[in-house]
Amino acid sequence: MVTIYTENHTDRDFLIDLAVTELSARLLRQQTRDTIVSFCNNDPEKNSLIAVISYIEAHLDELINIQKLCRIVCMGRSKFFTEFKRHLGTTPVEFQQQQRLKQAALLISKGQAITAVCYQLGFPAPAILAVFLSVFLVCRLRFFSCVI
Fold first, then answer.
1. Nearest to residue 98, comparing CAs of 51, 145, 37, 14?
2. CA-to-CA separations, 50 to 2, 37, 43, 58, 90, in angstroms, rounded
3. Which positions ≥6 away from 31 have C-beta within 8 Å?
4. CA distance 3 to 51
5. Which of 60, 113, 128, 129 is buried most, with the most CB atoms less than 10 Å from its CB?
6. Which tens digits make up the pLDDT trace of 24-41?
7. 50 close to 44: Cβ distance less than 8 angstroms
8. What topology does CATH give the domain 2-147?
9. Start-end of H helices in the chain
10. What separation in angstroms does the CA of 118 have from each of 20, 59, 130?
11. What one-character DSSP code corresponds to residue 90?
């Protein structure tokens, strides 16, 4: 976004408007996701999608069983994926991975060892968690530095 602003392109204003619109949409999607997750923690039985989110967060250390999630939500596989993606902007597996990384970053910041966090959250090896975590943190830092 900064490079678009500093360029002397003929369509600069239009490109800046598009970039701001995209950034706003991404921020709103993230805020919506965070709101749904916080609501899920307060009342996990409110609706079936929230029950699925609650289940995923309670079982971060396990591989996701899509059939089990479909049973919880009482939907077919394709309908479930469509609704999940529509509400959260991501697939169930990607959502679980994001939640794992957030939890890992939190636990490591509290002083827990990477190896312990790795096995606690179901990552197959500490090296894999370290790589995911470095990418996750760098992406978040870049995102927030662009926002500010």
1. 37
2. 38, 8, 8, 12, 15
3. none
4. 43
5. 129
6. 677 667 666 676 666 655
7. yes
8. Arc Repressor Mutant, subunit A (1.10.10)
9. 2-6, 12-42, 48-58, 66-73, 77-88, 92-109, 114-120, 126-147
10. 37, 14, 9
11. S
Whole-model pTM over 0.70: no
Domain positions in the chain are 2-147
Q: Which residue is associated with the tokens 């939890």?
A: 103
Tokens representing residue 74 in the block? 């009482």
Instruction: Write the DSSP symbol of residue 46.
Output: S
Quote the CA–CA distance of 17 and 102 in Å, as a whole number.
31
Q: What is the pLDDT of residues 45-55, one digit of tens each?
A: 557 788 888 89
Query: Can you read off the two tokens belonging to residue 42?
Result: 């307060």
Nearest alpha-carbon partner for 99 in 142, 50, 139, 53: 53
